[in-house]
Amino acid sequence: MKTNLSKSRYGQCRIHGAVPAQRKRDSAQPQESSRRHPVRELMIKAGILTLAIGAGIIYVTAARAQSGAPRYEADVSWPKPMPDRWVLGGLGGVCVDAQDHVFILNRQDVIEGDLNGGKLAPPIIEFDPAGNVVNSWGDPKLLDPRLHSCRTDKDNNIWIASAPSGMIQKYTHDGSKMLLQIGKKGTVDSSDGTIKGKPLNSEAAIFFMPSSIFVDPQNGDVYVSDGEGRDSNRRVAVMDRTGKFLRQWLPEGMATVHCLSMANDGLVYVCNREGSRIQIYDKMGNFKKNIEVPWTPVTPPKDGKLTQSGGSAVALDFSHDPNQRLIFLVNQNNAQVEIIDRQSGKILSSFGRPGSFPGQFNQAHGIAADSKDNVYIAENRGRRVHKFRVVNP
């Protein structure tokens, strides 16, 4: 099949306000009626419309359509085949620029034997809206290997974070030049400067496991969630546009600080991955409220003990209407994306399920929405990127 592929280039403040205790979860499962319903009607009542396309299956969200949430289906035509028999490792993150180009972060941790049949794909790969590879880059001498997240700023520069790492980096859009590095490569914020040392949460522009970045479009301040792992820092650090440390806060009740983003109204949304909630702050770190993200295992555990499989608040992005009405949130525990009303915190709908077919997830890890509210998901264990498009009612 002929594809359109352009030439790639490889080349201090504490929390103000108490955080409410996590709601008790009900592990009881709802009973489904099976009285004289044909198969199609059963599937619609369950909220899932399945479409077979080739060997794959697309799962379209139909549940709770009355809520006003958009319905999504997997776009199996995106992305197009990558060039030169590229082989991906786990994907740490995904981000979208002002032109709706999509960037994925390839950790390059390929499975043994994969390269017998292909070539190692570059660390950072850029797709156009149609899914064609238009650029690729990444100098391992500059980047740390375990890429975790990316973000484009208002000037379309791209910011990169790895975890563990003592730094974050800002590059030109095409990756040809590093414009700024905050922190030091090879030295983390610990008692001995290594990941084996005791985390310090220092009031300084140095990091341990930076998990997410957001650049305030109003003044260029850089917000970093520093706490991807359990044995690392647990803070949100803020620097100015030059990298000078300004302030930090330690979100209460978080074992890890796994993601962060800022809405247009200036509120900062921080993922409490294991606590099953999003914690919301103002720019100074004053606590505002929680959005709870309760989850229930589809199959109740035999011993009755709830065991998480990654957390229910892993990564998030917002819809692109002026008020950013919706939050799109990766819930690894249920292998799905939650669609949440940003103001009320109500979960309106969801899409996805475990698996390896189109529309299914194998450890979804990163999420980004473009200007049309298409949603892109990067899988770590599954080593692929999905596009989900809005389905007209």
Can you describe this structure?
With 393 residues, this protein is an all-beta fold. It has one helix spanning 39-45; strands spanning 48-53, 56-61, 71-74, 86-87, 91-96, 102-106, 119-120, 124-127, 133-137, 147-152, 158-162, 167-171, 178-183, 210-215, 222-226, 235-239, 245-249, 259-262, 268-272, 277-281, 287-292, 316-318, 326-331, 336-341, 347-351, 364-369, 375-379, 385-391. It has a single domain (81-387), classed as TolB, C-terminal domain (Neuraminidase, 6 Propeller). It starts with 38 loop residues before the first helix and ends with a strand. Residues 1-57 and 59-65 have low confidence and may be disordered.
Radius of gyration: 21 Å
* Helix coverage percent: under 10%
Mind describing the biggest β-sheet? Answer: 4 strands, antiparallel
**Would you identify the regions where 5 or more consecutive residues have pLDDT less than 50?**
1-57, 59-65
Q: Provide the β-strand percentage band.
A: 35-45%
Q: Overall pLDDT, averaged?
A: 87
What is the domain total for the residues? 1
Q: Based on Cα principal axes, name the global outline.
A: globular
CATH class identity = Mainly Beta
Tell me how many strands there are. Answer: 28
- What is CATH's topology name? Neuraminidase
Major β-sheet strand ordering: 3-28-27-26
What assembly state would you assign to the polypeptide chains in this entry? single chain
- From the 3D coordinates, which CATH architecture would you assign? 6 Propeller
How does the helix and strand content classify structurally?
Answer: mainly beta
Q: Output the helix-strand order.
A: HEEEEEEEEEEEEEEEEEEEEEEEEEEEE
